[in-house]
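Here is an idea for our session: we take a single protein and study its fold together. To get us started, please write out a protein record for me. Once you have written the record down, we can walk along the chain together.
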Amino acid sequence: MKNYITICCATLSLLTLISSSRPGTGRVAQAADSLQVRVVKDGLTMPWEILWGPDDYIWMTEKSGKISRLNPASGQTIQIGQVPDVKVTDYGGLMGMVLHPDFARQPYVFVVYTYQEGSRFLEKVVRYSYRQQQLSQPTILVSGITGNQDHNGSRLLISPDLKLFVTTGDGNRQNVAQKLDSLNGKLLRLNLDGTIPADNPFPNSPVWSLGHRNQQGLVLVDDKMYTAEHGPNTDDEVNLIRKGGNYGWPNVAGYCDENQRGEKDWCATHQGIEPLRSWTPTIGLCALDYYNKPLFPRWKNSLLATSLKASRLLQLQLDETGTKVIGVNEFLVNQYGRLRDLCISPTGNVYVATNNFGNDKIIELTAKGNP
């Protein structure tokens, strides 16, 4: 018999201090769904990325450089690779991963991680081939991105037109987020061979958007791309990305609303783009995914996000246009510690990875009464 814990979410307490909203952006609301929660796997060491693979396994990175496939029914893991030159620090190591959309015919796995070159701490994107249940033939697509102990990003996404998107952090060097000659503090867009697409907004540059601090969430919903971004002490953000858009960092944190910092004037001069939602104090907003499955009807047309510092899963209800967050519900509040990533199965089950620096877990959320 499965070891389920049933959580009646109507009884979950809400900490309204983590939400900073403006008129028209919605309110924090109590959830009414009930969840069944099952620990699929424990004993992990800081999983960073989990994604649902075409084989109906969960594909997973761990910060130490390990790449594995996880059977979501049995919890069995199969290691398929180990990145040899990964450099692990407090917040560096093996991070994001994405699979080629046509994986059956093009079995490529893309990863991003930090490494060391002499005294320099750097970051790169590498493509592996997957054959006979092992990763091989690493091909470097981008390298030399400045890394740091913190603020490294980094999520990967492949769009339907086969472009690779990469989020980068500012590497704790704030001013570079506004400089087009730096890859830090940006959302990058590349061809799958690492070359620069001709239709990028800045000539001969992989930069798609700029002015970001530390983006650790990335999802594409139809033609709309959303990112989740860590703020300093204020203003974690969910952003709707525009081609060539400037999101303000370090001149602006969150909304363009602080006269003392000159945020309003800066945004007017530079056409700064405000977030869809911000959180003050910060909650360590991390992964993003899009939910539109019938298993949880109340979650349809929602972004799901994980929180590190505030230790919870958030449901961000979108309006019909996808341009506003009209409500926020919270789940797993302070129950499993820091939550790093999530993925969604074709049937609508949600899987969440913890990030507690030891004995981390993959948790399954399904509807109450679902077998």
